Amino acid sequence: MANNSFIKKSWVLWTLTIIFTLFIAYLQRTTGPTYPVSGKVNVGKEVIKYKLIRTDEITGTTIDSEIPISAPENISGTYIYKRYKSNDVWTEKQLKRDGDNLVISIPRQPMAGKVEYQVVLTDGEQIIKLPAEPVIMSFKGVVPKLTVLLPHVLMMILAMIFSTRTGLEAIVKGEKTYKLAVWTLIFLGIGGMILGPIMQKYAFDAYWTGWPFGHDLTDNKTIISFIFWIAAVIMLYKDRTKRIIAIVAAVVLIGIYSIPHSALGSELDYTKIEGEKTEIPAEEG
Question: What is the pLDDT of residues 184-208, one digit of tens each?
């Protein structure tokens, strides 16, 4: 009885909620397709550490996306790239030396355009590819941080926190299940259904690319979780004892948040836009 009373204490449930939410947020962030590919390789006697970005913003002054790799003077190399989902042939270029770095320069693409690239390093004897498979980098427009991006992130974090807390409240048959469910729906509605499309418009020039217009998982998972929480609030409003729907909605949101952010996100298909094969000749220097 004492243990059950301890578990029901509000501060215990909030502590469990915060820890769990931070874990899910970290997992989603570090497993997504926009998280940089990093590691280290041995090229001869040298250990080369690298961090290859997989997303970049299109700014008014952007010409190329430059990616530095720290490497000593005896290391040189090349890189290849082509537009993702295109009929392009690979373009090969020499890595440019800039002080202690070798620099990759990827041509800027329009919003939702993607480029795949791969690096080859050598010390004159050994040749190393990094990574083993080409990296896919996406391009997006600039999202206003203070007015759109940060409020969106804050609302979505609060939605996850309150969703988990509501689920725990329902499990212990607490009296605040309905109230917490309402707050969950509010945060999810503002963050996912209002600020989400606005952010999408800034980044990819489209308010909505999920069902029925596309297959963007970020949009699709947002609408699915929103529908479940609408159902939870309506059912709990009618009968506060029907807490099972809050548990189901919380589990759905956890499952959806476990899907890496930006998976199957907006992207241009150059083969459909251009229709014909585009060859990009190899360049020197």
Answer: 999 999 999 999 999 999 988 888 7
Q: Locate the domains of the chain by residue range.
A: 2-31+143-257, 37-141
Burial class (CB in 10 A: 0-12, 13-18, 19+), 263: middle
Whether the CB-CB separation of 254 and 166 falls below 8 Å is answered with no
| Long-range pairs, 19-25, Cβ under 8 A, ≥24 | 20/164, 21/157, 21/160, 21/161, 21/164, 24/160, 24/254, 24/257, 24/258, 25/157, 25/160, 25/257
pLDDT tens digits for range 4-46: 554 557 888 899 999 988 888 787 777 777 889 999 999 988 9
- Residue 282: how many CB atoms within 10 A of its CB? 11
How far apart, in Å, are the Cα atoms of 165 and each of 94, 110, 180?
A: 53, 41, 7
Q: Specify the residue for token string 């963050």.
A: 191
Name the token pair of 224: 């699915």
Global confidence as pTM = 0.81
Q: What is the domain class of 37-141 according to CATH?
A: mainly beta
Structure tokens at 187: 């945060």
